[in-house]
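Pipeline run #58 for the internal structure catalog. This entry was flagged by the ingest filter as a single-chain record with no existing model, so it goes straight to prediction. Upstream metadata was stripped on purpose; only the residue string is passed forward. Reviewer on rotation: M.T. Logging verbosity set to normal.
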Amino acid sequence: MSDTPTPKFLGENSPLPASPEEAELDYVPNPRKGSLYMVRFAAPEFTSLCPVTGQPDFAHLVIDYAPGETIVESKSLKLFLGSFRNHCGFHEDVTVGIGQRLFDEMKPQWLRIGGYWYPRGGIPIDVFWQSGAPPAGLWLPDQGVSSYRGRG
């Protein structure tokens, strides 16, 4: 019998959680424990709701992290991010909250999140958070998302 936890959602029919608070993130052992490397998740069609108007807000999220003992299971992350579709929150709160929850629960060596939000009221808002200085020697590619330029 293995002590490795079985991911709760992988291979299962999993409904979208009603809220980020109800969403459960799964973490599995780092398959390359002791190696310094970076994992990137991109969510180019992320949505949440404006806390003032209730209208949808759209963002391209990029989450980079250097794993510690565990990695986040990707389906649980997808369900967690999808749970924001019915969540009202300012861009800053949503972006930083996602980063902090992942960092607090997964305990990676380092984590950063870039929230590249599409314009609200004619002003695009980009929000960035990181857990601290990246580990020495970690390869940090650019997140690859340009600032909003409109149709031009």
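catalog note: The two ends are 59 Å apart (CA to CA).
catalog note: Residues 31 and 136 are 21 Å apart (CA to CA).
status: ready for reviewer M.T.
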